[in-house]
């Protein structure tokens, strides 16, 4: 069993055991609006609020809407088939282009951490088929149908979570969900971190995914077999930036959870801004924690949920004096991407 799945240890300075939040009252459609359904929704909203006002990372048990462990397993299978293609075949896939953020990004092509160097990962990005043409030429035959089924399930669940987030902070229920119409800026990112050398500890080993904070509303993250390596910056009131004085903490799942039957939820910087910093966005990274982990591949899938680009992001009057000026979601994303490109050029 991997370190991420174990969760034997309780929270301490080095470890954060993620809190499960029961979001099924939002994710499962019910025609009956009973009192108990209402109570379950209140409880869900308040427990998600509790986590997100501290650091923003939690887990929810599957099924969550139409995201089932079975669909997740099929999706990981096709992702693994894609990354197992030989290098020549992978280089013939549609190449990732930062301008449209679709296609295959080979190993060494991205660096979140300019000091530690390129991330030891390869990725394949898919965007909404309603707005973009994903080119699946050369992908394994089942990849497209399974990914499209997964996308539809993610979209449904993300809409339900957006409603939960609005209820949680006490604004109109459709405040966030109404900004998710075209899904134009959302992305599924399939990730493969291949086996690599172990340098003796996490600092002298290659970095699998450098320190960053997700930009958008929130991210649904699935880690196959709960493989370890994900770390958060010290939490409980920390800001989103990578403060060198704060230690990293290893993320663990509670021992009772099946690592292939959960989704991690992680709030992004846009949501922090939109909630006037009531909700946090936490810096995180993926390291190689041990020789055993270095020897094996790690697979994960992230669904980045971003509002449609033309939607205005303005702090709601109920959330106090705005710290931030209104901005269009598309402009915000461009601003954050420019920051990364500038940092990478330095
Ligand atoms: O693979 C993981 O566990 C995290 C990936 C991640 O944080 C990202 O791609 O933004």
Automatic annotation (TrEMBL):
This is Fe2OG dioxygenase domain-containing protein. The lineage of its organism: Eukaryota, Viridiplantae, Chlorophyta, Pseudoscourfieldiophyceae, Pseudoscourfieldiales. Keywords: Iron, Metal-binding, Oxidoreductase. PROSITE patterns: FE2OG_OXY. GO terms for molecular function: metal ion binding; oxidoreductase activity. Gene3D superfamilies: B-lactam Antibiotic, Isopenicillin N Synthase, Chain. It holds the Pfam family 2OG-FeII_Oxy. Belongs to the iron/ascorbate-dependent oxidoreductase family. Residues 182-307 form the Fe2OG dioxygenase domain. PANTHER family: 2-OXOGLUTARATE (2OG) AND FE(II)-DEPENDENT OXYGENASE SUPERFAMILY PROTEIN-RELATED.
């Amino acid at each position: 069993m991997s370190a991420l799945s174990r969760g034997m240890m309780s929270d301490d300075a080095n470890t954060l055991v993620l809190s499960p939040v029961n979001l099924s009252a939002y994710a499962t459609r019910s025609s009956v609006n009973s009192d108990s359904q209402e109570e379950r929704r209140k409880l869900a909203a308040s427990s998600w609020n509790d986590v997100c006002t501290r650091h923003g990372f939690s887990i929810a048990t599957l099924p969550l809407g139409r995201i089932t462990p079975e669909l997740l397993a099929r999706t990981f299978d096709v992702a693994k088939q894609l990354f197992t293609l030989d290098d020549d075949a992978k280089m013939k896939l549609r190449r990732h282009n930062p301008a449209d953020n679709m296609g295959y990004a080979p190993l060494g092509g991205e660096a979140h951490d300019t000091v530690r160097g390129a991330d030891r990962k390869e990725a394949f990005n898919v965007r909404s088929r309603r707005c973009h043409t994903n080119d699946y030429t050369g992908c394994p035959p089942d990849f497209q149908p399974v990914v499209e089924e997964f996308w539809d399930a993610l979209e449904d669940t993300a809409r339900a979570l957006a409603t939960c987030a609005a209820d949680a902070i006490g604004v109109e229920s459709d405040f966030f969900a109404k900004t998710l119409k075209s899904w134009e800026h959302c992305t599924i990112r399939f990730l493969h971190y291949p086996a690599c050398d172990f340098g003796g500890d996490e600092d002298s080993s290659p970095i699998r995914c450098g320190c960053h904070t997700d930009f958008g509303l929130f991210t649904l993250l699935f880690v196959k077999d709960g493989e370890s390596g994900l770390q958060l910056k010290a939490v409980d009131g920390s800001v989103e930036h990578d403060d060198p004085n704060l230690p990293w903490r290893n993320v663990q799942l509670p021992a009772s959870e099946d690592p292939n039957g959960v989704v991690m939820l992680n709030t992004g910087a846009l949501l922090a801004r939109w909630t006037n910093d009531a909700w946090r966005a936490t810096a995180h990274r993926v390291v190689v924690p041990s020789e055993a982990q270095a020897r094996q591949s790690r697979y994960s899938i992230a669904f980045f949920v971003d509002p449609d680009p033309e939607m205005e992001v303005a702090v709601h009057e109920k959330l106090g004096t705005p710290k931030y000026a209104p901005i269009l979601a598309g402009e915000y994303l461009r601003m954050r991407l420019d920051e990364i490109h500038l940092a990478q050029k330095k």
